[in-house]
Input
Amino acid sequence: MEKFNSYVDRSFEPEARRLGIETLDELNEYFEYWLSENYNNKKHSSIGATPEEIHSAGKAHVKYISPEKLRDVFIQRVERKANKTATVSIEGNLYKLEGILANKTVQLRFDKKDPANIEVYCNGQRYKNAEPLIIRNNVWDGEASVDSFDAPTDEAMLKTSYLKLLKEKYENRLKDKANRLNFTSLYSKEDAQNV
Output
């Protein structure tokens, strides 16, 4: 992973700065082009193929996790002792629990992006979700401004950009892929049994 990060620092970041990217969306867009064309579809000497080829070859062995299971894996978990009025505090927000949980230690599970939805567990048993009483600290709304890269002043540097070339190559490859005919999709499962 460190090797990849170093490669991004050496290859993508200078190009992004040279291009004068101003928004996070624009940065993400060009990173996708760079990642696809300059990394995932470029033959790596250590594996003798492109990462895309290696990934495609192993798709039959890939196990997909449901969004619910993925949420359970990454959900925040904290323990709190409810006070005598069955309330708890998380990150400056106050929540009401079921009365039976007063003065008990509970486990609270939540997504930081959704402070109004707090699951409550005590001794492994699930209880009714905590009821928000006071929400002081809310989630980041995504509207905060993002510091832009320092744009170069030399106009000649901006006319030809490696990232713009990668974007063009990426879009052409997607068009080519979309125009291919997939013969296996022409047959239904019933036809496949008769062949």
In short: The longest strand covers residues 125-134. DSSP finds seven helices and six strands in the chain.
